[in-house]
Specification:
35% of the residues lie in helices and 20% in strands. The termini are far apart. The strands form two sheets. It has a seven-stranded mixed beta sheet with strand order 4-1-7-6-5-8-9. The protein is of the alpha+beta class. The longest helix has 23 residues. The protein is built from five helices and nine strands, in the order αβββββαβαβαββα.
Length: 191
């Protein structure tokens, strides 16, 4: 079991990695924005192939983010994150309410594997213990996806429309209704 001090150090490291990567990739932040710590743009995002874990409900095949011709919901999480754990049932309910035409992907930047911070079995147990639904779960150890979309912490959500335009980006807890509204706005091409 991970000690509290190690968990806090891990959390701080992820935040620094994401922030440092964002500055390295995009340069220093500009003044303005939406104030929630996450960016957003009306530009079409070039897809990034995210490796997924082989789980009973996740086949281990890469998922492109954004997924071509589909609204895509990306939920960033970490197994040490209490807010992620508390929000997972809302994401599961959203998944059930919006339909199968929406591509969901949950992504952790934790190193997953036998020599990682957590094992695949740890992620599977965490997922099942906290009400996760049946959609792919990926690992982005390099934080490339987080950096590209200015996600500076977890939990975080990014929603793309079917054309690959980022329509919603939020760091922090989102309710089921907020997530459903974000998906519907992406379907309508609204920001």
């Amino acid at each position: 079991m991970m000690k509290r001090r190690e968990a806090l150090a891990g959390a701080a490291s992820l935040g620094l990695l994401a922030a440092g990567g964002a500055v390295a990739v995009r340069g220093p932040p500009s003044i303005g924005g939406d104030g929630n710590g996450a960016g957003g743009s009306n530009d079409v995002s070039e897809p990034i192939a995210v490796e997924t874990l082989s789980l009973p409900w996740s086949d281990g095949e890469p998922v492109d983010v954004p997924t071509e011709d589909r609204v895509t919901v990306v939920k960033f999480f970490a197994t040490w994150c209490r807010s992620c754990r508390e929000m997972l049932p809302d994401v599961t309910e959203t998944h059930g309410r919006v339909g199968d035409d929406v591509q969901f992907l949950s992504v952790t930047t934790e190193r997953v594997g036998d020599d990682g911070q957590v094992t695949t079995a740890d992620v599977e147990d965490w997922w099942e213990d906290h009400g996760g639904g049946e959609w792919p779960v990926g690992s982005d150890e390099t934080a490339e996806l987080q950096v590209r979309h200015d996600v500076a912490g977890v939990p975080a959500t990014v929603v793309f429309d079917a054309d690959g335009v980022e329509r919603y980006s939020h760091v922090g807890v989102s309710t089921t209704d907020e997530l459903v509204d974000a998906v519907e706005a992406a379907r309508d091409g609204e920001r």
